[in-house]
């Protein structure tokens, strides 16, 4: 089964969005370089960030998000973001009215069921969990293997927390990657078991 990785860009004070669900400058590093990160050419990063990020993105088979993120993005119009094969949406509500049942989106109730479905779909590829409330729930359930953060030099002061509402201690190993890009610090930690 594929490794489960919790991931997002994050402010230095631990937020993935402001109080209005806006990421503000958290994704500026994705357009602050000269190396295209994807085929669209819209994302351009430093060579250092490309060398770290592109191989990771290429290994992702499935992304898990909450219904809130799904609704905010309008379900990416039925196309998984970044060339990912499938999206698993954690929700207590049914799929939206008129949603294309052939779109590679799977609506699942509960994080344990979401991780099981994502691992089934991903095979030996990575399962990425969006940081925030759902990511924090997956971490609290003991199902996250690795935490990745792209730390951006901005302080939000308040907003949506990277680890959601996690209210217990979770130990991580020492970082096994600390890579400085342009306006971003890429960090990777294994979750201590």
UniProtKB/TrEMBL annotation:
One of its GO terms (biological process) is riboflavin biosynthetic process. GO terms for molecular function: 5-amino-6-(5-phosphoribosylamino)uracil reductase activity. It comes from Saccharothrix espanaensis (strain ATCC 51144 / DSM 44229 / JCM 9112 / NBRC 15066 / NRRL 15764). It holds the Pfam family RibD_C. This is Bacterial bifunctional deaminase-reductase C-terminal domain-containing protein. InterPro entries: DHFR-like_dom_sf, RibDG_C. Residues 111-170 form the Bacterial bifunctional deaminase-reductase C-terminal domain.
């Amino acid at each position: 089964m594929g490794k489960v990785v919790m991931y997002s860009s994050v402010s230095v004070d631990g937020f993935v969005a402001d109080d209005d669900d806006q990421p503000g400058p958290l994704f500026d590093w994705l357009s602050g370089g000269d190396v295209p990160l994807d085929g669209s050419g819209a994302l351009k990063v430093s060579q250092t960030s490309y060398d770290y990020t592109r191989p990771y993105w290429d290994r992702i088979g499935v992304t898990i998000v909450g219904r809130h993120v799904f609704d905010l993005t309008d379900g990416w119009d039925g196309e998984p973001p970044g060339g990912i094969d499938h999206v698993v949406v954690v929700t207590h509500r049914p799929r939206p009215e008129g949603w294309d049942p052939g779109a590679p989106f799977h609506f699942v109730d509960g994080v344990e069921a979401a991780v099981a479905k994502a691992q089934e779909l991903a095979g030996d590829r990575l399962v990425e969990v969006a940081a925030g409330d759902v990511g924090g729930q997956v971490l609290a359930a003991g199902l996250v293997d690795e935490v990745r953060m792209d730390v951006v030099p901005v302080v939000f002061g308040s907003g949506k927390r990277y680890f959601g509402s996690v209210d217990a201690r979770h130990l991580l190993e020492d970082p096994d990657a600390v890579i400085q890009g342009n306006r971003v610090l890429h960090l990777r930690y294994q979750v201590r078991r």
